[in-house]
Amino acid sequence: MRAETRHQLKQDRFSKATIQVAEQTVHWTVEHKNKLMVAGLVVLLLVGAALGSWYYLAQQDDKASVDLSKGVIALETAVRAPGAPAQPDSPSFASTGDRAKEAHQLFQSVIDRYPHTRAADFARYFLGVTAAQLGDNAAAERELRAVGGYHNADLSSLAKLALASLYANTHRDKEAIDIYKQLMSKPTRTVSKSAAEIELAESYRAAGLTAEAKKLYQQIQKESPQSEAAQLASTKLQDLK
Question: Using CA of residue 64, residue 10, residue 144, residue 130, what is the dihedral sign?
Answer without folding.
Answer: negative
